[in-house]
Amino acid sequence: MDLESVRDSLIRQEDTIVFSLIERAKFPINSWAYSPPQNGVDAFSASSFLHSFVRESEALHAKAGRYENPEENPFFPDDLPPSMVPTHDYKQVLHPAGSSINVNKTIWDIYLNKLLPLFAAEGDDGNYGLTAACDLACLQAISRRIHYGKFVAEVKFKEAPEEYGPAIRDQDREGLMKMLTFEAVEEMVKKRVEKKAVVFGQEVSLSDDSKGKETYKVDPSVVSRLYEEWVMPLTKQVQVEYLLRRLD
Amino acid sequence: MDLESVRDSLIRQEDTIVFSLIERAKFPINSWAYSPPQNGVDAFSASSFLHSFVRESEALHAKAGRYENPEENPFFPDDLPPSMVPTHDYKQVLHPAGSSINVNKTIWDIYLNKLLPLFAAEGDDGNYGLTAACDLACLQAISRRIHYGKFVAEVKFKEAPEEYGPAIRDQDREGLMKMLTFEAVEEMVKKRVEKKAVVFGQEVSLSDDSKGKETYKVDPSVVSRLYEEWVMPLTKQVQVEYLLRRLD
Q1: Residue B90: Cβ-neighbour burial (10 angstroms; 0-12, 13-18, 19+)
Q2: CA B216, CA B118: separation in Å to the nearest integer?
Q3: CB nearest A192 (choices: B49, B69, B205)
Q4: Which residues from B are below 8 Å from A23, CB to CB?
Q5: Is A156 helix (H, G, I), strand (E, B) or coil?
Q6: Could you read off the pLDDT of A224-245 as tens digits, one per residue?
Q7: What's its top-level EC category (chains A, B) (predicted)?
Q8: A129 and B200: CB-CB below 8 Å?
Q9: In chain B, which residues have their Cβ closer than 8 Å to the Cβ of A61?
Q10: Which helix (H) or strand (E) segment is A82 a member of?
Q11: Structure pTM?
Q12: Which of A83, A129, A195 has its CB closest to that of B61?
């Protein structure tokens, strides 16, 4: 694993995120799925339908070995069943302390309360199960991308340990954040994901007329904003948290 | 629901199918997921990992109300748990006999034995859970598209009952199949899905150079072939089966 392969993975994951948002946009917001049942009294029934759906999906995925892969981080890590598939020997690239870093609570909150209202139409068409399956795909894709920051940080550290060492020993969050910020690169990523939303979200037809060429299934500026305001800052936060533990 | 809205849905579903194939292509074929365990003795352990994964996923989706939607058809319809979400009043567009039509066994067989080897690379990377989640998305998208033939048939019948009536009363499969075949339209659909595989499967970059412009994540000719050999013939088969029962 080097900077090149990490970069390729990040770029490929952009496609997955854009696809998942386009698929979610087929359904209206369907708010019922996100509200606690009105008569909920105990901890379980106070949680939402999406909460139950994601938790049960993750239990199934855990049995299927999903979380053996260090790129995957569950939203509900407590009480997950063990994997029932043959153990694969994933390369142990990360420092062991990396596995304790999980910002999925923040991702969940941002996805539901900030991102979703920006691209899902108003309304309720009753397709809560289909909607929740799309939400799960979005959440998993965004979560994988952000937690990939652990690999980014590891590769950067490996390439220049002497550069990061002092700030790590000083536990200097701000200094590390500065070392990990490259505004020109971030600007380019924003432009690229916006372009992907244009290309993947267009109406493809055989004729060359411009009908539908300027409406997209997800507003490209929303995808750019997702990266600017949430994906890139949280990825850097994961990188900083990882580096702070890198010499433990 | 009219021919226009049915057509729009079919076109939109093409995007979903192409996205799902592109996502599956991230992983190698991972054959272990599809083989019966070598020491399997009883009916359950003789089935494959994918079989268990899809069956358990469908049970969860059934609880989440997925199969209340007449557009959705499960692969393992037996013993599905009831929906636990508020009942949505789906428009009863179809003749009740339509619900008995389910060609998912054929779809399963084609997907695993014919389609997958055409676009998944050789190899095993151990990501069986992630792979199975992608397979599920592909299977569901292809199944929804093919079973949408029920709605196509209903709308066509409603627009010209006098045209289909005689062949239905004669239970004339061949005659119905001829009435439902429009070669020019099928040719256009094949071209369009091939173009979608080109557009959605390309490497999108900010520069205008042609690097990577001619390699696609899924071979566009495979998507065209999927439609020509399997999706369109099976959709017509579903239409014929539906019409044969339409006057019951």
Answers
A1: middle
A2: 14
A3: B205
A4: 16, 19
A5: helix
A6: 999 999 999 999 999 999 999 9
A7: isomerase
A8: no
A9: 129, 133
A10: none
A11: 0.96
A12: A129
Which pLDDT belongs to residue A207? 86
Structural tokens at position A112: 């539901």
Task: Say yes or no for a CB contact (<8 Å) between B192 and A202.
Answer: no
pLDDT tens per residue, range A21-75? 999 999 999 999 998 765 544 444 558 999 999 999 999 999 999 999 999 999 9
CB contact under 8 A, B126 and A88: yes
Tokens 């060429």 belong to A213
Which residues have a Cβ under 8 Å from the Cβ of A6 and sit 6 or more positions away? Answer: A148, A151, A152, A155
DSSP A113: I
Per-residue CA distances from A244 to A35, A99, A231, A234 (Å): 37, 13, 20, 15
**CA B4, CA A221: separation in Å to the nearest integer?**
30
Q: List, as own/partner pairs, every contact residues A70-73 make where C-beta atoms lie below 8 angstroms and the sequence separation is at least 24, other chains included.
A: A70/A94, A70/A98, A70/A99, A70/A150, A71/A144, A71/A147, A71/A148, A71/A151, A72/A140, A72/A144, A72/B130, A73/A102, A73/A104, A73/A143, A73/A144, A73/A147
Q: Helix, strand, or coil here: A23?
A: helix
Neighbours of B147 (CB within 10 A): 23
ipTM of the predicted structure? Answer: 0.95
